[in-house]
Amino acid sequence: MGASRSLTVAAGSGSGRVVDVTRLVRLGYWLGDRAPGWPDPRCFVDPGWDADERAETVSYLRHAMVARAFMGHSRCRFCDAPVGALEFSDGVFLWPEGLAHYVEEHDVRLPERFVRHLRAMVEKLEDADVDDSWWQGLTSPE
Q1: How many Å separate Cα 86 from the centre of its chain?
Q2: Residue 142: its pLDDT value, please?
Q3: In which element (H, E) is residue 11 found?
Q4: Beta 25-26 vs 93-96: how paired, if at all?
């Protein structure tokens, strides 16, 4: 078991809140020949999913923080395309780089729990007050 880690997230006027990143919720790993026990991505296909919500989800998946990098690429369970060697995280969820490919190219709809979460995160960022004083007050990196 690794050491306990936390991440301080800036909030409002310079204060921060500590987010426990010792436990992340994994999503987007799929059933395969060498991956038993994961959900079957075919059960998540929904071509009728709202296009705007799908696009927002793809953007969120692609623009998160890189949490881990691996030596080899994973392959898509639908088309066998290489779909990446990274894991991304937003501090709550952890997903493989290729998850955006499944959503965009194969109409995979992610669980509502995750979609609600990403909407809330985007809304918080859009509505956040911005404090310029720290950056404007710097004259060197020290």
Answers
A1: 11
A2: 81
A3: strand 6-11
A4: parallel
